[in-house]
Amino acid sequence: AQSVSQHNHHVILSEAASLELGCNYSYGGTVNLFWYVQYPGQHLQLLLKYFSGDPLVKGIKGFEAEFIKSKFSFNLRKPSVQWSDTAEYFCAVNAGGYNKLIFGAGTRLAVHP
Amino acid sequence: GAVVSQHPSRVICKSGTSVKIECRSLDFQATTMFWYRQFPKQSLMLMATSNEGSKATYEQGVEKDKFLINHASLTLSTLTVTSAHPEDSSFYICSARVTRETGELFFGEGSRLTVL
Which of A13, A37, A72, B24 sits between 20 and 30 A of B68, alpha carbons compared? Predict the structure, then answer.
């Protein structure tokens, strides 16, 4: 069965620090990959997505993610975080022909001023 | 992006009563909607896939007689929690898919159910 692993459950950073959140999935075929963000008190929003093509994907608010097929990974990065990036981040995978998104456990990011 | 709306956002009910939560796609037609449940500080757990005009597909371990799902039109799916108990208290989130190929979901605001 498909699964998604997010290695960091809780990350605490200071403003301007660099961020990398890990995401690995278990599926050998074609995948569509997503990162969603949930700001405090708000609903889930799409941060970025990968379907095909350039494995380095740029999303909103300066976030990017790199799909490394050989490592089954889709790590999220941001070179310099801001206090407003405090939120919970979810990695999700839709395997080719599979009817639903599978979510990772989420990573709670706290950015201190 | 596409807009998905959920109602109510918060509901409090007594144990033993039933509660209905609505999920609407406002600016697109959704043949498939998904219902998730989110426990505090945990990820989203897929409960069921709601298909317009047909029966919902439930995930393993989800009681279909307790969580009734109806998808009567291309823009509306409803989740009814029947004979609710305190352990059913949770955050319920619906989502809709615009295209099957990409699997990208748009999420509603969520509905927080508290059963007393």
Answer: A37
Distance between alpha carbon A50 and the CA centroid of its chain, in Å?
A: 11
Q: Does B28 touch chain A (CB under 8 A)?
A: no
Exposed (0-12), middle (13-18) or buried (19+): which is A33, by Cβ within 10 Å? buried
Nearest CA-CA distance, residue B94 and chain A, Å:
10
> Comparing C-alpha atoms, which of B54, B81, B76 is closest to residue B65?
B81
Q: What distance in Å separates the CA atoms of residue A103 and residue B96, rounded to the nearest whole number?
A: 15
> Mutate which of B26, B31, B43 to disrupt the A interface (most A C-beta within 10 Å)?
B43
